[in-house]
Amino acid sequence: xxxxxxxxxxxxxxxxxxxxxxxxxxxxxxxxxxxxxxxxxxxxxxxxxxxxxxxxxxxxxxxxxxxxxxxxxxxxxxxxxxxxxxxxxxxxxxxxxxxxxxxxxxxxxxxxxxxxxxxxxxxxxxxxxxxxxxxxxxxxxxxxxxxxxxxxxxxxxxxxxxxxxxxxxxxxxxxxxxxxxxxxxxxxxxxxxxxxxxxxxxxxxxxxxxxxxxxxxxxxxxxxxxxxxxxxxxxxxxxxxxxxxxxxxxxxxxxxxxxxxxxxxxxxxxxxx
Length: 273
Fold this sequence. Notes:
Blueprint: E1 3-7, H1 12-23, E2 27-32, H2 35-44, E3 50-53, H3 59-69, E4 78-81, H4 96-124, E5 128-132, H5 145-165, E6 171-177, H6 183-190, H7 208-221, E7 225-228, H8 230-241, H9 246-272
Parallel strand pairs: 1-2, 1-4, 2-3, 4-5, 5-6, 6-7
């Protein structure tokens, strides 16, 4: 039986990934900093997954995770870097600690865990390292500079890692979704600075279960990058070739997305009423 380690496993996407990989016959290692939510997520699976409480900003916790990944007697076949944070706000309004947390959780921790997985998987000439990223890794977002920077950096790391590991039989991939219907998205959109770009090109946010299915399919195909929706990725990539167009085009797209953002918030309010 193969084993998958999933960070951010107590969140909506993390739980969906756990359900999908359990259904595919994988043994699970679930990682999150919220002990209560993580244990609840583990119980909901109806199985007995391995659980590790870890704060990805804590060097000691990261070291423990790396040691588990590199344990030769209990190999980890798949690493999924899923944990992440986003706190919208204009540059100059976020605290230094919060800016650093974006980089530590969204980029540095995945890099450190991927390095541990690389050391273990190269020896076996087998394994897969996958990161759940964001459309923000492909193009900038106003009022989310720290988040975008962390995702841009992770994208570059993963693409470079793929070049290194291809000769060693280790797979590398990532998924770049726009809006995903999770509590994290709800919290982001509750802020006046929450980006309406999350809703450009999407009739509605993708469900966590659908995203988990995309992740599994991408791994089966060995695809390096999967953009959701693909059209958003094409737009973002094209705009980055012509930086002078960023402001006018993104401003227009933000205005289009505001209507869908408002509809999304109205739906949330109705569901909570």
